[in-house]
Amino acid sequence: MTESTLRTIHSIVQIPIREGPIGSSLPFLFVNEGELSLLALAWARCKKLEEHASSATVADGAAALGRFLDYCYLVYTGDLSRPEVALLALKRFYEARRFGCPQLGWQ
Fold first, then answer.
1. Torsion angle of C-alpha atoms 35, 41, 42, 44, degrees rounded to 10
2. What is the dihedral of CA 28, 30, 34, 36, to 10 degrees?
3. For the range 51-58, what are the long-range contacts, defined as Cβ-Cβ under 8 Å and sequence gap of 24 or more?
4. What is the distance between the alpha carbons of residues 94 and 50, in angstroms, rounded to a whole number?
5. Angular region, 31: left φ>0, alpha ψ -120 to 50, beta rest
6. Which residues are CB-contacts of 87 (< 8 A; sequence separation ≥ 6)?
7. Measuring CA to CA, which residue among 101, 43, 18, 36 is closest to residue 67?
8. Band of pLDDT at residue 99, cut at 50, 70 and 90
9. What is the C-alpha separation between 104 and 2, in angstroms, rounded?
10. Distance (Å, rounded) from C-alpha 9 to C-alpha 46?
11. 10-30: per-residue pLDDT in tens?
12. What burial class does residue 62 get, using C-beta atoms within 10 Å of its C-beta: 0-12 exposed, 13-18 middle, 19+ buried?
């Protein structure tokens, strides 16, 4: 595998919605083997329908969450159930996004 090959466990499907302006959609975030992230969907729905965020803003947020899940599943092996460990994972994710992560193909 080369460094330019991206590794991922997530995919995002934009689903059109009736509420809002024409062209509005919600990102459905799927992880692992097709499991829908209901928490990500609830967040997207809240941002879009209650806070009136643009579809692009909500899609960017879902993509960021997908990258964080990629990092947690494929690189970070700690138990995220404790707040201090989750905070450390978030810090390391930030560093991986900023400086690169060869395991995921991030430069």
1. 160
2. -60
3. 52/20, 55/14, 55/23, 55/24, 55/25, 55/26, 58/26, 58/27
4. 28
5. beta
6. none
7. 101
8. very high
9. 10
10. 24
11. 999 999 988 667 778 899 999
12. buried
pLDDT of residue 79: 85
DSSP string, the chain: --TTS---SEEEEEEE-SSSSTT-EEEEEEETTTEE-HHHHHHHHIIIIIS---HHHHHHHHHHHHHHHHHHHHT--S-TTSHHHHHHHHHHHHHHHHH-BTTTTB-
Reference 75, options 28, 26, 19, 7; nearest CA is: 7
- pTM of the full predicted structure? 0.85
Amino acid at 36: L
Q: Write down the residue that tokens 């097709």 correspond to.
A: 34
